[in-house]
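Subject: Re: docking follow-up (pyridoxal-5'-phosphate)

Dear J.,

Thanks for your patience while I sorted out the input files. As discussed at Tuesday's group meeting, I've set up the holo structure prediction with pyridoxal-5'-phosphate included as the bound ligand rather than trying to dock it afterwards. The sequence and the ligand SMILES I used are pasted below, so you can double-check that they match what you have on your end before we go further.
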Amino acid sequence: MIHFSSKLNNSTPSIFSIMSEMAREYNAINLGQGFPNFDCSLQLKQLVAKYLNKGMNQYCPMPGLFNLRNNIAQKITTLYKVEYNPESEITITAGATQALFTAITAFVNPGDEVIVFEPAYDSYIPSIKFAGAKPVPICLKAPDYNIDWNNFADQINEKTRMVIINTPQNPIGTIMANSDMSILAKILANKNIILLSDEVYEHLIYDDQKHHSALSYPSLRDKTIAVYSFGKTFHNTGWKIGYCVANKKLMNEFRNIHQWNVYCVNSFLQYALAEYMQDEESYTNLNSFYQEKRDYFNNLMKGSALNIIPAQGTYFQLLDYSQISNLNDLEFANWLCQKHGVASIPLSPFYTNGSNDKVVRLCFAKTKKTLEAAAAKLAAIKK
Ligand SMILES: Cc1ncc(COP(=O)(O)O)c(C=O)c1O
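The structure tokens for the complex came back this morning:
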């Protein structure tokens, strides 16, 4: 009989598996899944085939293909007006999740504290616990999810090793304003605290608002590790490829861990992405592409008893059901799926304290046909 102790006690199946399973069982329209139900670009797939057939099938350099890193560096300079050295300050990762896990593992030690804003993307807290550290959640509340920066400053002490931010934010679809980022920079100034900035939705931001990358704040430069995901930008989440950006000192340590848990990421995708992203429109048009979907769906929902809180960024937005039901969000999501055929994601599993604001998350990265079918079902629900 083999005995072992789990490093992540009490890990339960994720809410995504639970809701996707339920969607299948009840044949529901799945707006819970956080990924597009349409394909990525044909041109990008052809580039992948080209490099696969050309034989780009062996290991590439540990930090990733230089051309890809170089193109990323140029993109960062164009968008965020800051220079990062592709040789020493950018690393290609197996999706943003690996970048997040590697960064936390590299810099966080047992006994440290890591501040996380909740509701939080679900990989942060297990990664912090895996590193033997203590997550310190700061609870953001509906409907506006504003950050109380005085409360944030009060949570910092000599054990605080890292702060994780996510803008635009999954699951709530909010963004950090320039004023938020400036206050954050001020609070962290002269503190030995790393800022892990999850910016995977950098290009999904609406209503002419701007993404304020942590990379563009000079006083944050020595402490920021920023992570990105090609999967979110190019509609191919299954490829699991992303990248991490940090100054040389932090990146050296990041690569120290990266080389032992991945070494390098698959090579032919890197060749294809390097060529594809040379066309800036491959990512600069994303805002209007997704804003059109958001607006299309929200127009269909006008007059419904269910209230949409429109997304400022990401491809998620919240459905406020407080007008029609007293159920908690888990019960409501079950009811919505089983009785009305639309799968959503409740928000309470994204909070350590199970906070329940009578909202569920919907993903609008879906075809018009899917959005129409879901809106028809949702709009039919009466008070
Ligand atoms: C906020 C956030 N960070 C990171 C990730 C993971 O990205 P990837 O699929 O590139 O690992 C996701 C995926 O849903 C996400 O929503």
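A couple of observations from a first look. The chain has a mean pLDDT of 96. The chain has 14 helices and 13 strands.

Let me know if you'd like me to rerun anything.

Best regards,
T.
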